[in-house]
Amino acid sequence: MTEPLSVWVVSDGRAGIENQALGLAEAVQRLTPAEITIRHIRWRPLFDRLPSALKTPAMLASEPLTGPWPDLWIATGRATLPLSTRVKAWSGGRTFVVQTQDPRWANDRYDLIVAPAHDGLSGDNVFEILGSPHRITPGRIAEAAPAFAARIAPLPHPRVAVLIGGKSKAFDLTEAHAADLADQIAVAVRASGGSLMLTYSRRTPQAAKAAMTARLSHLPGWIWDGAGENPLFGFLHFADQILVTEDSANMAAEAASTGKPVHVLPMVPLKSGDKFARLHDDLAERGATRPFDGTLDAWTYAPLAETDRAAQAVLEAMRTR
To answer: CB under 8 Å, gap of 24 or more: what pairs does 108-114 form?
Structure first.
């Protein structure tokens, strides 16, 4: 019997970063027997801001990584780069090294870079996908749904999941804009006779959150206040429609993996959004998303399975290296 593939998921431990590598690892595991181990990288504060080229394992605050080295190393984030570029030598060339996102350093030293197409990265070892790898699949959200069924199942259709982001380098969500969005969402949900399932991100400004909650709390539904288990997967499973703010490439791509209509909510731009515009253009071209126009029209499309497609590319590259 062939031994399962040993896979290390390597990141600085932040959920949004880790989930990219873990989502890709889980997609590999769905295609071939694999054992996944999660490793976290943290640098001592004195050395954290050093260029990647100057960092050595002696500068780690986390436990140094030692062999036996994995068959497949999947890493995400700047903190991992000094190790991702060395692990192949440490393993005697055995470990296949995958980096997600654009490393922006030593790009020729990874076996494969799984990069968002909207970043415009090119190279012989670059595999482009729409958005970033993630953990959301129809099966995964179906497994999580029963935990939330008692709260959500009685809600009237159409059930509208609303995923709100927040301030970033490219976008803002001011109190006034949040209030305006909430008013538009309320009109659409009332007109449909449906219900609301809303969740905020860690980046949502408090003033914007308060304004939206005040204007939407009268609707039938559930506005998650951050207490208890995050119901996001339950929202996505039970939703008939999904509304998502334009500031997060991940949220839009994850929502599009459900095959349900995804309406994109506008934000306040802070700078040129060329990269986000490319992503949203690609998602719209696939038939997954449309700009929110105040109505809840329905449509169908083939659910995006970009993480699975990337996992197939990883295994193919491992076989042919």
So the answer is: 109/84, 109/85, 110/84, 110/85, 111/317, 111/321, 112/313, 112/314, 112/317, 114/24, 114/310, 114/313, 114/314
